TrEMBL record:
Natural source organism: Geomonas subterranea
InterPro entries: 4Fe4S_Fe-S-bd, MoPterin_dinucl-bd_dom, Mopterin_OxRdtase, Mopterin_OxRdtase_4Fe-4S_dom, Prok_Mopterin_Oxidored
Keyword Calcium: no
Lineage: Bacteria, Pseudomonadati, Thermodesulfobacteriota, Desulfuromonadia, Geobacterales
Region Disordered, annotated ranges: 514-535
Pfam family, any one: Fer4_2
Family, similarity comment: Belongs to the prokaryotic molybdopterin-containing oxidoreductase family.
Positions of the 4Fe-4S ferredoxin-type domain: 737-768, 791-823
CDD domains, per database record: PsrB
Sorted UniProt keywords: 4Fe-4S, Iron, Iron-sulfur, Metal-binding, Molybdenum, Oxidoreductase, Signal
Domain of life according to the entry: Bacteria
Protein name per UniProt: 4Fe-4S dicluster domain-containing protein
Domain (4Fe-4S Mo/W bis-MGD-type): residue spans on this chain: 47-103
C-alpha cells in the first residue's frame, strides 16, 4: 500500500466538490469549497458581479448578476444602462428562476414515435449535419435576436442557400408598424420619450406593464408624476375597455369597447382639427375621419369630455399619444394607429416625444403575412430549426404546419409545446450562461456574458449552428471572411476586439460596463412628414348582435408577458396588480352582460371564436366594458413545466393565424356545467372602509397650505411622551434605520415583491396553500380604491414597519421578536417556537408563519442567498429591511476606515423599483434623505398612527391632479 500525504488525504476527504470546483469551464460549486486546494477564479465568501443584458423580453435592460461561491444568486439592474438605469421589472428579477428551473432541458433528446430518448451531442450533430449535407433545405424561426447571434443565423441560412429566416415575437406591434409605413414610409416602432412629457394619451397601450420598454417608461412616468414643490405632476388619460394597471394610474379613464377605440381616436383627431388646436395641419384626412365617424356612431360619451381631452392634449408643452395593444392586428388596429400617429403629428410630438431615429429592435420581428408564407413553404425536404420560440403555443395552426417539415430541430431551454413537436431537442444555455449582445435601439449595444458556469450539458445556440455548418462541410464565415470556432470569437471579431493587449483591455472594459452606449443620448431626429395622399380608414366591423356575443379583449400580464415565463413560481405567485389574483387567469365580464346570460360570479364559462374555444372562471366587474370579455394571456400551457402545465387557459387558442385579435375578435360566451376553479386572491378587500390607509391630497389643497397636518411621532426618543406611552423609549447606538415610501410614485408593478422573494429566500408554496391563506410574501403591494373615484386604484407597498413601540415584541414568550440596537424588529429564527402571538398582535399583518416544510426543487436551491437563513416549519418570518445588506455595507465601510454614506445601504425592494418609490437610510444622520423626508415633507403620515406603534416607515400621501 502506497503512502498517502496529508495534503492528498485532505484533498480526498474534502468531498466530491473538489472535482467541480477545479473544473474551470464550469465555475460552479455546489458543495463546501475546499481551503487546501481552492478553486480558481473563486474567492470563498466574496461577491462577484457580472454585467449582462436581460433577455426576458425585447426591452433589453442592463443587469448586474451577483455570484457567490460560483453560484448566481440575485439579478439587479445595471445603474449605468440607459434603458433601465438600475431598475428591473418582475420578469427581470425572475431570470434566475429560468436559469435554475428544475424543468429545464438538460440533455439532448431524440423523439422516436411518441417518446423522447436521451442521446449524445455527437449523435445529434451527426444526424442533423448528415441531413443538411445531403441536401436538406433550411428554414429557421427564432425569437428576436440582434448582433453577433443574428449574424450567425443569417450566415447559417445563407450558407445552405436559404433566405427563410424570421424573428418571431407574438407581440410584434403589427398595426403600429403598418400605420407608420403608410404615413411615413417607415415600418418601425419609434422610441417614445415620456421623460418631460406633461400629458400622455393612451389608447389601450399598457406602457407601464408590457408595451414598449416598460421599465424605462415606468421610470420616466413616475419622474413626470412625482411631486415637486411648485410644479404640476404630468397628466394622463387612458381610453380602453378594461381597467388595467396602466389605466388605473391615469387621471381619466374613458371606458370604451374594442370596436369603439378607432372611432374615438378619429373623433378626438377631428375635434383637434375642427377647433384649430394643432401645430401641424393634417387637413386632407378630414373626409376619412367624417366617413368613419358616420359609419359607426360614437359611444355614449359626453361630447364635452372629448373636447376637454383634446384641449388638455393640445395645450400641453410636450404631449404624446400611444396606441396599443402590442399584439393588435387587422384594420381596426391599423386605423387606431393611423389616427394616433396623426395626433402626434398635429401637436408636434414627431421628432420630440416620438423619435423615429431610434427605432426599437422589435421592428425586425416578422409580420403575420411573412409567417404565413414561411409556414406554407415547409415541406418534407426541409429541416426546420426553431430557436427559443414557441409558435405551437402562441399561434393558431402553427403546430400542424410545422409537422409538414421533414425534420424539426428545437434549440431552447424548456420542453415547451414547440419542443414536443421536434425530432431533435438540443438544450441551449440560458441568457445568463451565454455570450452575446443585444441592441434594443440604435446607439445602445448591450453585452451578454455568462454569470456562472454551465449548470447542465448545454451549449450556446450560436455555437451549435456553427458546429453543424462545419460538420456539414459548409463552415460559416464572417463579413471579413474568417470562420470563427464559436460565437464568442465571432462576437469579438465583429466588435474589432480580437487579438492584441489593447483589444483585450477594451473587451474587459466593455464587459465591466455591460456594453457600449453614449452617456448622453443624441437628440431626437427631425420628424418625418406624413404622406396623406389617398388616406382612408376602414368601416368598423359590426358589433355584437346576439346576447351571447362579446368582443374579446386579451391582455398581457405584467408577470407572464406572452407566457414564456409561466413556469416560474415567483411570477405565478406574484399577484395581478388590479385583482390580486394568483395562479391562473379568468374571464372579466360586466354584470349586465352576465345577467342576460344567467352567469354568476365564479361560474365556469366558455369563450368560443372562429379559431377555437376555452373555459375559465368568471369574475363579474364593472371594470370591463359591457360588451367585452377580457382575459389574460400567458397561461394555459400543455407543456413547459410543472408550474405552467394545466394552470389557467390559453387565450391564443381564440386568435386566428393573422392575429386579428388586437381590437375586434368576435366571440360567444356561455355558461357551462362543471366546477370552475375559484380564482385565488391574496387580498380580499380593495376598499379602504374609511380607514384612511392610503391617503391622498388634491394638488390645489397641498399648494394652498390648507392640507391638514397628520399626527406624527418620530420613532426616536423625541417621539415618546410619558403621558400616553406605555413602553420606554429606545436609545439607538449608531443608527436608526428607516424608510420613506412615496405613494405618489408607486405604479403597482410588484417588482419590489419579486425582488424580496429573490433576496430573502422567500419560498413559493403553490396554489393550494395560497388558497388556504398561507402565502409567504414579506412585501405586498395591495390595491386600494381611491375614494370618490370608481376608476382609480392606488397601491400601498406594505412590509414590516419596524416600529419603535412594536406590539409584536413584548408578547413573544421566548424573545424571538426583539428590538435590536439599530432599531430593527429582528426575528431570531432559532428561538422561535411558533406560538404566533407576534402575528396576532401585529396590526399591519406583515408576519408570515411557516406551516409546512417546503421543498426547494433542485437545482432551485442553488439560487438561495447564502447571507439569509432558510426557514423551516414552525417558524415566524418577516421583512428585515434586508439586514444582510446593512451588515455588508457596514463591514465594507469598516474595512475602508470610514463612516457609512447616505444611500450606501439599499434594500432589495428599493434597488429594483422602476418608479423609485422607496428611500432608505439612517434617521440619526441629519443630512440623510430619509431624515429630510421624514421630518419635513408635508405629505408624511404613519399607517395606523392612532395605535401609537411609532413605525420607522413613513408614507408620503398621493397628490391628485385636480379634474378640469
Amino acid at each position: 500500500m502506497s503512502e498517502m500525504s496529508r495534503r492528498t488525504f485532505l484533498w480526498i476527504t474534502g468531498g466530491s466538490s473538489i472535482a467541480l470546483a477545479t473544473d474551470t469551464p464550469r465555475k460552479l460549486v455546489n458543495k463546501l469549497i475546499p481551503k487546501v486546494t481552492p478553486p480558481e477564479e473563486i474567492s470563498p465568501g466574496d461577491w462577484t458581479y457580472y454585467a449582462t443584458t436581460c433577455r426576458e423580453c425585447p426591452a433589453g435592460c442592463g443587469m448586474h448578476v451577483a455570484n457567490r461561491d460560483g453560484r448566481a444568486t440575485k439579478a439587479e439592474g445595471n445603474p449605468g444602462h440607459p434603458v433601465n438605469r438600475g431598475a428591473l421589472c418582475p420578469r427581470g428579477q425572475s431570470s434566475l428562476q429560468g436559469l435554475f428551473d428544475p424543468d429545464r432541458v438538460t440533455r439532448v433528446l431524440y423523439r422516436s414515435g411518441r417518446k423522447l430518448r436521451e442521446k449524445s451531442w455527437q449523435e445529434a450533430f451527426t444526424s442533423i449535419s448528415t441531413r443538411l449535407a445531403s441536401g436538406g433545405r433550411v428554414a429557421l424561426l427564432s425569437s428576436l435576436q440582434t448582433g453577433a447571434l443574428a449574424e450567425v443565423l443569417h450566415a447559417f441560412t445563407a450558407t445552405f442557400g436559404s433566405d427563410r429566416l424570421l424573428f418571431y415575437e407574438p407581440f410584434n406591434y403589427e398595426s403600429l408598424r403598418a400605420a407608420h409605413q403608410q404615413l411615413f414610409g417607415l415600418p418601425v416602432i419609434p422610441r417614445y420619450d415620456l421623460e418631460g412629457s406633461d400629458f400622455i394619451l393612451s389608447f389601450a397601450a399598457d406602457f407601464l406593464e408590457t408595451w414598449g420598454s416598460p421599465v424605462r417608461q415606468a421610470r420616466q412616468f413616475s419622474d413626470a408624476r412625482g411631486y415637486r414643490e411648485g410644479e404640476s405632476p404630468a397628466r394622463m388619460a387612458y381610453l380602453g375597455p378594461r381597467l388595467s394597471m396602466t389605466a388605473s394610474n391615469a387621471d381619466r379613464f374613458v371606458q370604451a369597447s374594442p370596436e369603439q377605440i378607432p372611432v374615438l381616436a378619429a373623433a378626438l383627431l377631428k375635434v383637434v382639427l375642427d377647433r384649430g388646436w394643432y401645430r401641424n395641419d393634417p387637413g386632407p384626412v378630414r373626409p376619412a375621419l367624417d366617413a368613419l365617424i358616420k359609419s359607426s356612431p360614437l359611444p355614449a360619451l359626453d361630447q364635452e369630455l372629448l373636447v376637454t381631452l383634446a384641449r388638455e392634449f393640445t395645450s400641453a408643452r410636450r404631449p404624446v399619444a400611444l396606441t396599443g395593444p402590442q399584439y393588435a392586428g387587422g384594420s381596426a388596429g391599423t386605423d387606431t394607429a393611423l389616427c394616433v400617429a396623426l395626433l402626434n403629428y398635429a401637436v408636434g410630438a414627431i421628432g420630440t416625444t416620438v423619435d423615429f431615429s431610434r427605432p426599437h429592435a422589435l421592428s425586425l420581428s416578422a409580420r403575420a403575412a411573412e409567417l404565413d408564407l414561411f409556414f406554407a413553404s415547409l415541406g418534407p425536404q426541409d429541416v426546420l430549426f426553431v430557436l427559443d420560440a414557441n409558435p405551437a403555443y402562441c399561434r393558431t395552426g402553427a403546430a400542424e404546419q410545422m409537422t409538414r417539415a421533414g425534420m424539426v430541430v428545437y434549440l431552447g431551454t424548456q420542453l415547451d409545446e414547440t419542443a414536443e413537436l421536434a425530432r431533435w431537442v438540443l438544450p441551449t444555455d440560458t441568457p445568463l450562461e451565454s455570450w452575446g449582445e443585444y441592441q434594443p435601439e440604435p446607439g445602445v449595444d448591450g453585452l451578454m456574458q455568462p454569470v456562472m458556469g454551465r449548470l447542465h450539458d448545454t451549449r450556446g445556440a450560436g455555437d451549435i449552428l456553427i458546429a453543424l455548418a462545419r460538420l456539414a462541410g459548409r463552415p460559416l464565415k464572417t463579413a471579413r471572411g474568417t470562420a470563427p470556432a464559436d460565437l464568442l470569437a465571432w462576437l469579438k471579431e465583429r466588435r474589432g476586439l480580437s487579438g492584441g493587449e489593447q483589444a483585450e483591455q477594451a473587451w474587459q472594459a466593455a464587459l465591466r460596463k455591460g456594453g457600449a452606449w453614449q452617456e448622453t443620448p443624441p437628440p431626437a431626429g427631425t420628424g418625418p412628414a406624413p404622406n396623406l395622399a389617398g388616406f382612408s380608414l376602414h368601416a368598423p366591423l359590426p358589433g355584437p348582435a346576439r346576447a351571447e356575443d362579446v368582443e374579446l379583449w386579451p391582455w398581457a400580464s405584467i408577470m407572464l408577458y406572452d407566457g414564456r415565463q409561466a413556469n416560474r413560481g415567483w411570477l405565478q405567485e406574484a399577484p395581478d396588480p388590479i385583482t390580486f389574483i394568483v395562479w391562473g387567469n379568468w374571464i372579466d365580464l360586466h354584470p349586465k352582460k352576465a345577467a342576460l346570460l344567467g352567469i354568476e360570479d365564479g361560474d365556469l364559462a366558455q369563450l368560443t371564436s372562429h379559431a377555437g374555444s376555452l373555459r375559465a372562471p368568471v369574475r363579474l366587474t364593472r371594470e370591463v366594458e359591457e360588451r367585452t370579455a377580457a382575459i389574460g394571456l400567458g397561461q394555459g400551457h400543455s407543456a413547459l413545466g410543472q408550474n405552467a402545465r394545466g394552470v389557467g387557459s390559453n387565450v391564443f387558442l381564440l386568435l386566428d393565424a393573422v392575429q386579428r385579435a388586437g381590437f375586434f375578435t368576435p366571440c360567444r360566451v356561455s355558461r357551462v356545467a362543471g366546477n370552475a376553479p375559484r380564482p385565488i386572491r391574496t387580498a380580499l378587500q380593495r376598499e379602504q372602509l374609511h380607514r384612511d390607509l392610503l391617503q391622498s391630497v388634491p394638488l390645489s389643497v397641498l399648494r394652498s397650505g390648507n392640507a391638514p397636518p397628520e399626527a406624527f411621532d418620530l420613532p426616536l426618543p423625541e417621539g415618546y411622551h410619558e403621558d400616553h406611552d406605555l413602553y420606554p423609549r429606545h436609545e439607538h447606538l449608531k443608527h436608526r434605520w428607516a424608510m420613506v415610501v412615496d405613494l405618489q410614485r408607486c405604479i403597482g408593478c410588484g417588482a419590489c415583491a419579486v425582488a424580496c422573494y429573490a433576496e430573502n429566500n422567500v419560498p413559493v408554496i403553490g396554489p393550494e396553500l395560497v388558497a388556504d391563506g398561507r402565502e409567504m410574501a414579506w412585501l405586498r403591494v395591495p390595491p386600494y380604491r381611491v375614494p370618490g373615484s370608481p376608476w382609480r386604484y392606488a397601491w400601498l407597498p406594505l412590509h414590516c414597519q419596524h416600529c419603535d413601540a412594536a406590539p409584536c415584541e413584548p408578547v413573544c414568550p421566548v424573545f424571538a421578536a426583539v428590538h435590536n440596537e439599530e432599531g430593527l424588529n429582528a426575528q431570531i429564527y432559532n428561538r422561535c417556537i411558533g406560538t404566533r402571538y407576534c402575528s396576532n398582535n401585529c396590526p399591519y399583518k406583515v408576519r408570515r408563519f411557516n406551516w409546512v416544510n417546503l421543498e426547494w426543487r433542485k437545482p432551485l436551491d442553488l439560487q438561495l442567498n447564502p447571507e439569509v437563513t432558510v426557514r423551516q416549519r414552525g417558524v415566524m418570518e418577516k421583512c428585515t429591511f434586508c439586514v444582510q445588506r446593512i451588515r455588508q455595507a457596514q463591514y465594507r465601510a469598516a474595512r475602508e476606515g470610514r463612516k457609512l454614506k447616505d444611500g450606501e445601504v439599499v434594500p432589495a425592494c428599493a434597488q429594483t423599483c422602476p418608479a423609485r418609490v422607496f428611500t432608505f437610510g439612517d434617521l440619526l444622520d441629519p443630512g440623510a434623505q430619509v431624515t429630510r423626508l421624514t421630518r419635513g415633507d408635508p405629505r408624511r403620515y404613519h399607517l395606523l398612527h392612532e395605535l401609537n406603534t411609532k413605525p420607522a416607515v413613513t408614507f408620503l400621501r398621493r397628490v391628485e391632479n385636480d379634474v378640469v
